[in-house]
Specification:
alpha+beta, ten-stranded antiparallel β-sheet, eight-stranded parallel β-barrel
Length: 797
């Protein structure tokens, strides 16, 4: 619901109000973003009405006046706006839009050079428009609405002295408590305007000391949670120059009250529908005002806007909750699932896959791939994915990127024959590509060296022995579209893993003039989005998974085209526990690729049980990345049981409401609250731990639930020399007799069954069975060693 009368602007969701007003000078004063100013009963009435009744308008005007800060005097050495408004100091106001030159010296939303060299920008209110539905941006991906519930407010500003116009675009998604913002700058003047900064949103808070939560890392260890209090100065999260949204700093951040935790406190989630360099900052000034901004990274960015041209900023997403991080995540997850992810796979359960990479790397042929696929089929796995190494002379990562022709030595019948054979097994077939890259040792580079991103005549920097292709050029975009259409049509392809394995350097395009090189990175992504849009629309039934050396480009821009993204190249279970928890703050489980891999792990040499690896990977788009051909029958039986279990609970794992629990646990609850899964992990095992309890979230207080745990496989080998407390003769640990006993003796973990009300599970929780304590093992003894995990299943009685 949106209300506007040219003086007051109200954007209302089910639980959130966003309010600003026009000042006498034509500036937009921000009043409130947070909890609803209406009761739930009033909101239910208002959202069915076309216009506010006179009593509601009068009450709204009085409420806004009561909420607004009062300024009766100037601010000492602050500058006042003009001679007619000597007490109006923009530095003291909360503002919807800010710029330099008229007294506001805080973080600006825009920086321009006008044709005469002037950098003072004074955008004032002209008009506004309200429209039903959601109109897409023209050059960038943006959210959409197919529920007929969204509304848009367009506030039109102008700097009349220069013919510059700025549209602030707000979209309200009422049922998931999300509001989005973007900006469109138009040059209606005579000369060129040089844009140095055009951010997407700016939100002022009338307090300081807020908590800024951001997510940082590196290749193979993404999404580490970091918290800072901003009492003064500025806290920044940014991707400065890598040219991608990045593992170093994800564009999703949180601003919250300092005492906010998972379940209480005010919490604002912000994200950006964009895949390039980004900038998020929370600053505090001496007037007890905090300001948050996000948008395209200003460093290294510039854009020449000629007469009649316009420039769009990426869409920023804002989700508020008064119920802590979990409450905010609920709204953000629903928004991403229903208004960012699109296409035939949006609501469809994702198939269980096996990827050939960690099983074979580059060393494979059609026979070895088919052997792996046959073993996977026996385990119930549904999709086989051939990773890197199938094209050109690609026997390592030094050559052939860009040459998208099958290697007939490895695949004598090409992709088609392999895909047909996989299909004959009753499995889907998928393939790996990296279309944005080129090796110097490739036919493509020899034919078109000018298509690579580099500075002509200068030495260039490489990553993974490859160069970026220049997607600012239409002919390069066309080549990628045409070559990928050929690949995707070469056989029965149901899945594509789209990789991108290096960051940018030597950013330069021979297709751009010298004074336009600052446009390179943004134009690259405009070109990439054109490529992705055309290919996903041409192949609507293919499930695309984004990947950028793992999660280096895990963002809403990519998710606008690809329904899921590979979470990390790190498949170590305990690393993934942290990585996937980090993603859960802003991204739903249905967007996160997660696999079970071999041990010792290929990234860390760490070890975890097959069950632990499964239970951690299950909370996402699930699969395997190991060599089943080398596994023993016992482990393959375990995998078959895991696959069967996951299929039964897949819809809940992928599309349920996800809550974070203490101690790295989680809980996923179905929308109708009839089913749920709780996950617990033992970070440090101690004996006699009989008091562990899972206090649930999200269940229906009024429902009665039957509760059971996933019974985990154990081995007599797990007990080591304790076997001698039961055996009639001495057994040497890990000896022949020990292994014979293991072969003919079945051990499992405990089985716990309970029945309880949803209200009791929330207020007290589920007490877990008593733990192992050296002796006294029985069928009810909970064995959770350091690193062990357990799933608990809740079903309505």
């Amino acid at each position: 619901m949106i209300y506007a009368d040219g003086q007051i602007f109200l954007l209302q969701t089910k639980n959130t109000s966003y309010i600003f007003r026009k000042t006498e000078t034509g500036h937009l004063e921000h009043i409130h973003f947070g909890g609803s100013i209406f009761s739930s009963e009033t909101y239910a009435r208002l959202k069915t009405e076309i216009e506010l009744e006179s009593r509601d308008k009068e009450l709204l005007e009085k409420t806004v006046q009561a909420m607004a800060p009062k300024h009766f005097n100037g601010g000492g050495n602050m500058n006042y706006y003009d001679d007619e408004h000597e007490k109006l100091c923009l530095e003291m106001l909360g503002l919807e839009f800010s710029s330099f030159g008229k007294g506001d010296i805080r973080e600006p939303m825009i920086e321009l050079y006008y044709p005469d060299g002037n950098t003072t920008v004074d955008m004032l209110f002209d008009d506004y428009e309200i429209r039903k539905g959601k109109r897409a941006l023209e050059t960038l991906p943006s959210s959409y609405d197919d529920t007929d519930s969204a509304q848009q407010l367009i506030v039109k500003l102008s700097d009349k002295g220069y013919g510059a116009k700025l549209d602030l675009i707000y979209t309200v998604f009422p049922d998931c408590d999300v509001i989005t913002r973007s900006a469109v700058l138009t040059n209606d003047g005579e000369g060129d305007i040089r844009v140095e900064r055009l951010l997407s949103t700016s939100v002022d808070f009338y307090e300081t000391g807020l908590k800024f939560t951001s997510f940082h890392g590196r290749w193979a260890y993404e999404m580490g949670k970091s918290e800072s209090l901003c009492k003064a100065g500025k806290v920044v999260s940014e991707e400065l120059a890598a040219g991608e949204s990045g593992s170093r700093s994800n564009p999703f951040v949180i601003v919250s009250s300092p005492d906010a935790d998972e379940n209480k406190g005010e919490c604002y989630g912000f994200n950006l529908i964009y895949s390039g360099n980004h900038y998020e900052a929370l600053s505090s000034n001496g007037c007890s005002i905090s300001r948050f901004v996000t948008g395209i990274q200003p460093t290294g960015f510039s854009w020449i806007l000629s007469k009649g041209e316009k420039l769009e900023s990426p869409e920023a997403v804002m989700a508020y909750s008064g119920k802590g991080f979990n409450g905010m995540s609920m709204g953000m997850h629903e928004f991403v699932r229903k208004h960012v992810v699109r296409g035939s796979w949006r609501d469809k359960e994702r198939p269980i896959l096996i990827n050939s990479w960690e099983a074979n790397y580059f060393n494979f042929n059609q026979g070895s791939l088919l052997n792996l696929a046959k073993e996977a089929k026996k385990c119930g796995i549904e999709l086989f994915v051939m990773d890197d190494g199938w094209f050109g002379e690609r026997n390592d990562d030094h050559r052939s990127l860009g040459d998208w022709e099958e290697n007939k030595k490895k695949l004598p019948g090409g992709v088609k024959e392999l895909a047909d054979k996989i299909s004959d097994l009753g499995m889907l077939f998928g393939i790996w590509v990296e279309p944005e890259m080129v090796n110097e040792d490739s036919e493509l580079y020899k034919a078109h060296p000018d298509w690579a991103v580099m500075v002509p005549g200068h030495a260039h920097t490489k990553g993974r022995f490859q160069l970026n292709l220049d997607l600012t050029k239409t002919e390069v975009q066309d080549y990628i579209i045409d070559s990928m259409k050929k690949v995707f049509s070469s056989g029965k392809i149901s899945y594509v893993k789209w990789d991108m394995n290096r960051i940018f350097s030597d950013r330069f395009s021979t297709g751009l003039a010298a004074d336009r090189q600052g446009e390179f990175q943004h134009r690259y992504y405009i070109g990439l989005y054109r490529v992705m849009k055309e290919l996903t629309e041409s192949f609507p039934d293919i499930l695309f998974e984004g990947c950028s050396a793992g999660g280096n480009r895990f963002d809403l821009g990519i998710l606008s085209y690809f329904p899921q993204t590979w979470g990390s190249d790190d498949t170590d279970a305990f690393c993934r526990l942290d990585i996937q928890r980090g993603y859960s703050y802003g991204y739903p489980a249905s967007t996160v690729g997660a696999h079970v891999s071999a041990c010792p792990n290929h990234q860390t040499l760490g070890n975890a049980t097959l069950e632990t690896r499964f239970e951690i990977a299950a909370a996402g788009c699930f699969g395997y990345e190991l060599n089943l051909c080398d596994m023993n029958d016992s482990d393959k039986k375990i995998i078959s049981d895991q696959v069967e279990f996951y299929k039964k609970w897949r819809k809940l794992f992928q599309f349920g409401d996800y809550y974070r629990l203490p101690d790295d646990g989680y809980m996923i609850v179905s929308r109708d609250k009839k089913k749920a899964i709780a996950f617990a992990v033992e970070k440090k095992a101690t004996p006699n731990c009989d008091y562990r309890c899972i206090r649930t979230l999200g269940l229906d207080d009024s429902k009665i639930y039957n509760i059971s745990n996933r019974v985990v496989p154990l081995s007599v080998m797990d007990f080591g020399s304790l076997v001698n407390t039961m055996a009639p003769v001495h057994v040497k640990q890990d000896g022949i007799i020990h292994h014979l006993i293991d072969k003919f003796t079945n051990f499992t973990g405990e089985e716990q069954k309970e029945t309880a009300t949803g209200a009791s599970l929330k207020s007290r929780g589920l007490s877990l069975n008593g733990s192992f304590a050296g002796t006294g093992y029985g069928p009810e003894t909970r064995i959770m060693r350091t690193g062990d995990t357990r799933l608990y299943l809740f079903e309505e009685a």
